[in-house]
Amino acid sequence: MFHVRTHLLASTVLLGSVLATPLALAETPPDTLVIATSIDDMISLDPAQSFEFSGQDQINNIYETLVELDPETLTPIPGLASEWSVSEDGMTFTFTMTEGRQFASGNPVRAQDAAFSLQRVVKLNQTPSFVIGQFGLTPENVDQKVRATDDRTLVIETDRPFAATFLYNALTAEAGSIVDMETVAANAEGEDFGNAWLSRNSAGSGPYALRSWSPNESVILEANPNWHRAGDLVMQRVFIRHVLEPATQRLLLEAGDVDMARNMTPTDVAAIRDNEGVKIEDNLRGQLYYVSANQKNEILANPQVVEALKYAIDYQGMADTIVNGTNVVHQSFLPAGFLGAIEDEPFSLDLDRARTLLTEAGYPDGFEIEMLIRNEQERIDISQAMQGTLAQVGITMSIRSVTGAEALSIYRARNHELTLQTWGPDYPDPHTNASVFALNPDNSDEAQLTGNLAWRNAYPATETTPMVEAAVVEQDEATRRGMYEEMQRISQQSSPFIILFQRIEQTAMQPNVEGFTAGGAVASAFYWPVTKTPQ
Amino acid sequence: MTPADIEDPRGSGRARFGSSGLPHVVKRVGGFAFSLVVTLFGLLLVTFLIARVVPLDPVLAVVGDRATQAQYEAAREAMGLDRPLAVQFVDYVGDVVTGDLGHSNLTSRPVVEDIRRTFPATLELATIATIIGVMLGIPAGVIGAVNQGRWPDHVIRVVGLLGYSMPVFWLGLVALLIFYGQLGWTAGPGRLDVTEQFIYELEVTRVTGSVIIDSALSDAWDVFRNALAHVVLPAGVLGYFSMAYISRMTRSFMLEQLGQEYVIAARVKGVPEWRVVWVHALGNAMVPLITVIALSYAGLLEGSVLTETVFAWPGLGLYITQALFAADFNAVLGGTLVIGAMFIVMNLLSDILYTLVDPRAR
Fold first, then answer.
1. Does B166 touch chain A (CB under 8 A)?
2. Distances (CA, A) of A180 to A78, A205, A224, B201
3. Interface A:B, Cβ pairs < 8 A
4. Quick one: which of B287, B299, B190 has its CA closest to B241?
5. DSSP H or E segment with residue A372
6. CA-to-CA distance for B197 and B239, rounded, in angstroms?
7. Burial level of A312, CB count in 10 A (0-12/13-18/19+)?
8. Taking CB atoms and an 8 Å cutoff, what residues of chain B touch A52?
């Protein structure tokens, strides 16, 4: 028996050593940044089409924009344009292209490339087109309104005297990426402006070029030797590994096979926070959690009912438990980090006040209501916690949990009652959220403003709509800031939106990784500032 | 052609008696082709209808949260979803016949290309897992049957039962934690490590899509070794489940055979016991066992979604599942077709092996 056992042991060890990678901690190559994350949402890498988080992260590192964001301060700085000015009437913007910039192909970056890039975003009319199109640009007029007057001068004409910062902020978004016209045009099919090709290839002037993208497997970026700061680039390659399971991401990180894991669960993060071999960086992002009450519902159309709901939620309790580490309490529609964002938190759990409000509203015994959510653990947890506190004031809330796509269909068709949703800003200007939470130009069913959150909830936003329209053309920054602050306070009191939390992204990484930024509230990830000190 | 030819996946023995030579071959090939076409068409129709009935909107999955109604309508039209259902189906079948499975909305590329990428990963995993399952499962089943009711039988049954009852997701994570995280004996999740991945990208010619085979063909032995170190754990986990099933079936087939008169006759004639068990009895038990193995293999080819998730294995199972959640119906239909075809091919293979093993079936 003893012999049998030693034999078994010996063969197991033998098998182990045959297959073994070194027993010591694995190490990633010193010039390669290896990231474990989920990229299953990535549909396209064309800046005119991509609107998913993971796609935007790659685009931010492949392309440059006329106006850039500083990765550290997240404030606008010159990018492919070195300077810009606006005419007296506030409707003609002139950009001077920075000298000496090149695309990865070696072609120079000219004003014609910039005009072509912005024109194709508008003409392709995919989801991100509004970021550029909202300045009065349509597929029909964009060729006249956005034009290169010579190699170094780009002119953009808007239909209204917009706040200058609004345009500059919008141009820092991924949709404002400048593509290599010659390369893209050479790969165009029919009238697609190179969309099919650019979905899975790159033609930018940024720090990296796309080497390969295997859906649900990996993305590999390679240093662009023509980038204007190529000499400063330490990470010559970025390897993004698609790892769906958070526990697997943690194992990879702990074994040293990846430098960074971006989707670990709060439980995993808490477990390794004190582990010396790993560090956690928290980054406040722009995504908000909110509950909204459809005003088509007779009960929810009563403002006192909505107010009662606002007092029947345990914001801090949830932030301390189920979303601990991933979200902080935030109760206004502009995320912290935006121009005009406010920190006011007027609501906290106050069951007596909620009961009084319900009695005044004519529902002393509460009512029955349905909450629509997508079937995700965190959302289930949040709605169950709400279910508990609402029950204490007599409201019986049932939870309808469906797939993400189905929840969105129901929400866009205004067929929900209550719904728990998230919203992330589209470009780093307050108008991005103000225009969906506080603006509703036409509340009728026929208007079909399905992209607008106020419309989806049948909320006419009578008081704030003119304010949003005024703020977007306000030239004085301090005045503009004050307008956003005011409309958020109005929205907190009278809108059917109950903003709950702002998201924190927790990135777990090897202790030798420095310089990574997830992008804060206003941008996407920056890979190029990353360095790794030898271990 | 009798209906029995289509319904009985092993082919009807009855129909074959008395037939021989060319007409027999023609009949069989024809029968196979017919069943292939009918089955695949049925599969297509059912999957197509289910895909259109479920409350998932493929257009929204593509255009996303922000799209305006006009953008939504434009995308719907571009995807051809505004046409009548019957027209869509006829068009789709027409495309499939010419080898075009359409475009995946999720990956922005042709479904055929996606399948060519994901299926070899699954094939690699399933094949190694089945080899492990057969190599361990058959001997375990035979030993269990011979020692029925004694301790080796109990041990094997308990080990098998654990394989049956443990969630694969959990087992995979625990296996990763121990063999990769703690002991460092195997490589981690994914098909290759970063360094080897770059070598694979640059130096290995893609022939089959299987990293193991392609790297061996290109003499990239570092990549080959790394790929083996990556596949051993997921294949081992799947192989364990396959082993549990095969050993249980082997045991029951063997018990049936060991009670037969020819076994007693062989023993009486003085045939050595090992020969009675491993040659005579197992030889006969192999006949039904082939079908069991073939179907278990086909089941693994379907892709084990949970194993693929835990091990970050970019296989077909994960592809179809994610496509389903994203309402990417071309991808779902294409993947289902491939799996359906695999089941039919496996049935045919077991049919052929059958006639080789069992003289009565010739």
1. no
2. 19, 8, 14, 26
3. 152
4. B299
5. strand A368-374
6. 25
7. buried
8. 64
ipTM of the modeled complex = 0.80
| A415 token code pair | 């067929």
Alpha helices in chain B (DSSP H): 3-7, 13-16, 22-53, 58-63, 69-78, 85-97, 111-146, 151-165, 168-175, 194-203, 211-217, 221-258, 261-268, 273-275, 282-301, 305-310, 316-325, 329-357
Q: Which helix (H) or strand (E) segment is A260 a member of? A: strand A260-261
Q: What is the pLDDT of residues A114-146, one digit of tens each?
A: 999 999 999 999 889 999 999 999 999 999 999
Mean pLDDT over A314-335 rounds to 94
The token duo for B86 is 């019957």
> CA of B226, closest CA in chain A: separation in Å?
8
Q: Which residue of A has its CA nearest to B313?
A: A217
Most B CBs within 10 Å, among A8, A11, A19, to test the B interface = A19
Instruction: Please tell me the distance in Å from B179's CA to the nearest CA on chain A.
Output: 9
End-to-end CA distance of chain B: 19
Q: Is pTM, for the whole model, over 0.95? A: no
Q: Which residue of B has its CA nearest to A243?
A: B312
Instruction: Give the integer Cα–Cα distance in Å for A76 and A522.
Output: 11
Q: From chain B, pick out residues whose CB is under 8 angstroms from the CB of A55.
A: none
**B25 membership: H or E segment, kind and range:** helix B22-53
- Alpha-carbon gap, residue A393 to B63, rounded angstroms: 40
Q: Are A244 and A229 in contact (CB under 8 A)?
A: no
Q: For chain B, how big is the Rg over CA atoms in Å?
A: 24
d(CA A410, CA B279): 64
pLDDT tens figures, B178-236: 999 888 899 989 999 888 888 888 888 888 889 999 999 988 899 999 999 999 999 99
Which two tokens mark A46?
């064309």
> CA of A361, closest CA in chain B: separation in Å?
34
Please give the domain boundaries of chain A with CATH numbers for all domains. 1-42+206-278+510-535 (3.40.190.10), 64-197 (3.90.76.10), 285-504 (3.10.105.10)
Whether residue A1 is predicted with pLDDT greater than 50 in this model: the reply is no
Average pLDDT value for residue range A363-367 = 94
d(C-alpha A320, C-alpha A310), whole Å: 18
Query: Mind telling me how many Å the CA of A38 is from chain B's nearest CA?
Result: 10
DSSP annotation of A426: S
Which residue bears the tokens 């019986």?
A: A396
Report the amino acid identity of residue B201: E
From B55, B108, B311, residue closest to A44, measured CB to CB: B108
